[in-house]
Amino acid sequence: MDLSIFAILVQDGVTSGAIYALLALAFVLVFSVTRVIFLAQGEFVAYGALSLAAIQNHQAPLTASMLVALGVLTFLVEMGRTLLQPELRLHAGRTGAVYAVKYLLFPLAVFAAARLLAPLDLPQLVQVPLALLIVVPMGPMIYRLAYEPLVEASTLVLLIVSVGVHFTMVGLGLVMFGPEGWATTAFSDARLEVPLGAEQLVISGQSLWVVAIAALLIAALYVYFTHTLPGKALRATAVNRLGAQLVGIGATLAGRLAFTLAAALGALSGILVGPITTLNYASGFHIGLRGFISAIVGGLASFPVAALGTLLVGMLESFTAFWASEYKEVLVFTLILPVLLWRSLVGGGHVEEEEEE
Amino acid sequence: MSIVLEIKDLHARYGKVEALHGANLKVGKGQIVTVIGPNGAGKSTLLAAIMGALPITGTATGVVSYLGHNLTGLAVEKRQVRGMCLVPEKRELFTTMSVLDNLILGAYSRKRAGERHYLDQLDTVYQLFPRLKERSGQAAGTLSGGERQMVAVGRALMSKPQLIMLDEPSLGLAPRITKEMFHIISELRKTGVATLLIEQNARAALQIADYAYVLETGNITLEGPAEKLANDPSVIETYLGLNKKHDPPAQPCLSAGATDPQNRPE
User: Fold this and answer.
1) What's the CA gap between B12 and B19, in Å, rounded?
2) Looking at residue B11, what is its pLDDT?
3) Mean of the pLDDT values across residues B74-100?
4) Which residue of A has its CA nearest to B51?
5) Which residue blocks in chain A are alpha helix, DSSP H?
6) Is the ipTM of this complex over 0.95?
7) What is the largest CA-CA distance in chain B?
């Protein structure tokens, strides 16, 4: 292997590492706040990228219809719960109006916008927010429908629900996007040529975009979690759920917020990788799994360690693709074994520490 | 005197085991009411049932009426928003977050309600517990037991509660700090807050309380003004200790209880 190949592999590893970092953050966030291992995280990657691809092909993405359907379902569930409880029924009119705006009007508005705007030639600066607007609100709605009724359930039950949500979303993805793969337009075609000894190293503009946006998002999330009250409230729920309830932070509110952020991170990751990789309805899961492995490396608890884990996974993937491409997947997923072994050996002390409090 | 909290025929059960067999209790505005009783009598269950914070296996039936509203079926956070606050026995602090963040989160519901000066209690809390100001940047999990208790009480006060429920505030504290804590609790009464205090340290609790209940194996067996209970022979024998029988129940007991190492809680 010469220096230029090495540099290209590093560039590849860092780029995919940045994407996995975003997904790992989403996994850690959702798990620590709600105890849900959100397997469908990857589907948001696919939905984000494929919705954007549809918009770029001048079609209104079918995800917009799915958003309306989810909205109607959520509205019915919320209204049913309101009307069944006598104390809540007193204010049924007012809460009903709020729900109607949130779950009926808003999705319909997004649907109409997608229908009207998609046939036009839009700048990317409009296409991307439109795709996000369609996909991100699905996060809290899915939480409301699938997980909120099970707020007190065990992690295992929540995991099984996640498997169900994952398969449902993959199936709907096949219906909405078809089996073909799509790629989206790159954010920039610029190429940076860096002289490297005798040869030239080419850095693609898209890679720079990916790394820059991921770094920016991570920095923004850091500020959100350490300097704003809603961010601190989410962290508080992750640290101590009962304590959070005692100061008035509802578990369901925190859960919806966590799922909104996770959906946004997933959809954005999809939009970022869209131009680099061709994605189809099922490929979100593979990308999501790598984010999951990275999060496991961080013990599903620590953000900085999870971010380091992603770089490791990204690098391992790009180098094994070069040396032993047929074992690429195997090697990446094997990484989980030593990590779990180490965690189970060191983990005993960790549990005791928690119980002490 | 207006009634802040009134519970009627409150039952609580964990699975098939009933831990509380129909408790009745009232707390008035600016009043300190204490519930004393031995380990396992259902004291913590009583508070958790009032707050709606029973563990998943637990269910409560009966009426919990707060400022005239029936709270049945409301979630913990909805009760907290209405001005009830529970300082649980396990404190339930945000251990990896700083002391200041813990206190700020105590005022979370006020911020959400749109109050602009939602942190206005911070100075009061720092005045009550100057120690917390010194440690404001430190992670709550690194504090000593006494300091953690201060954070828990301080966090509760940040929400400007109308009813504060304290579960064993003296648990695991050194006698001197216990004395300080009880002094602060009796000071709180002046701000008009109603206090429901659960204590194993019956002597100290009866000293500062206005009214007291004795809870034994899930039943309230005795109730009355705190002074009267402090002189009740059966209470003296069971909770205050035989050797103190001839002491006058007022001031000397607190100082004795606070300095006597045998009286150290737990």
Assistant:
1) 6
2) 92
3) 91
4) A246
5) 3-34, 41-56, 63-84, 86-89, 92-99, 106-117, 124-135, 138-142, 155-177, 205-227, 229-239, 241-246, 251-273, 283-297, 303-323, 328-334, 336-356
6) no
7) 55
Which pLDDT band holds residue B251 (cuts at 50, 70, 90)?
A: very low
- Chain pair A-B, CB pairs under 8 angstroms: 79
DSSP per-residue codes, A160-177: HHHHHHHHHHHHHHHHHH
d(Cα A170, Cα A58) in Å, to the nearest integer? 23
Q: Say if the Cβ atoms of B104 and A229 lie within 8 Å.
A: yes
How does A197-229 read in b/e, with b if 16+ C-beta sit within 10 Å?
Answer: eeeebebbebbbbbbebbeebbeebeeebeeeb
Cβ neighbour number for residue A344 with a 10 Å cutoff: 9
Q: How many angstroms from the chain centroid is the CA of residue A186?
A: 20
Question: Is the pLDDT confidence value at B75 over 50?
Answer: yes
* 8 Å CB contact between A40 and A166: yes
User: Using the beta-carbon criterion (under 8 Å), do A248 and B81 form an inter-chain contact?
Assistant: yes
Q: Which positions in chain B touch A232 (Cβ < 8 Å)?
A: 97, 101, 104-105
- Cβ <8 Å between B159 and A247: yes
DSSP A208-263: HHHHHHHHHHHHHHHHHHHHSHHHHHHHHHHH-HHHHHHTT--HHHHHHHHHHHHH
The answer to whether the CB of A65 falls within 8 A of the CB of A135 is: no
Q: Determine the Cα–Cα distance for residues A207 and B1; give it in Å rounded to an integer.
A: 70
If chain A, 357 residues long, is cut into consecutive pieces of 10 residues, what is the mean pLDDT of each piece? 81 89 89 90 93 90 94 93 80 87 93 90 88 95 92 89 95 92 81 72 84 91 91 92 92 92 94 88 88 76 71 87 84 83 67 37
Q: What is the 3-state secondary structure (H, E, C) of B106-126?
A: HCHHHHHCCCCCCCCCHHHHH
Quick one: what percent of chain B has pLDDT higher than 70?
Answer: 90
Q: Whole-angstrom Cα distance, residue A45 to residue A39?
A: 12
User: B96: which chain A residues are within 8 Å (Cβ-Cβ)?
Assistant: 235, 239
pTM beyond cutoff 0.90: no
- In chain A, residues with a C-beta closer than 8 Å to the C-beta of B95 are 239-240, 357
Cα(B55)–Cα(A270) distance, rounded to whole angstroms? 40
Write out chain B residues lying below 8 Å of A248, CB-based.
77, 80-81, 108-109, 112, 159
Statement: residue B250 has pLDDT above 70: no
Identity of the residue in A87, A239, A247 whose CB atom sits nearest the CB atom of B95: A239
**Closest in B51, B78, B94 to A243, CB measured:** B94
Q: What is the pLDDT of residue A357?
A: 33
Q: Please state the rounded mean pLDDT for residues B172-178.
A: 83
pLDDT at B256: 40
Report d(CA B93, CA B75) in Å as an integer.
19
- CB contact under 8 Å between B96 and A239, yes or no, is yes
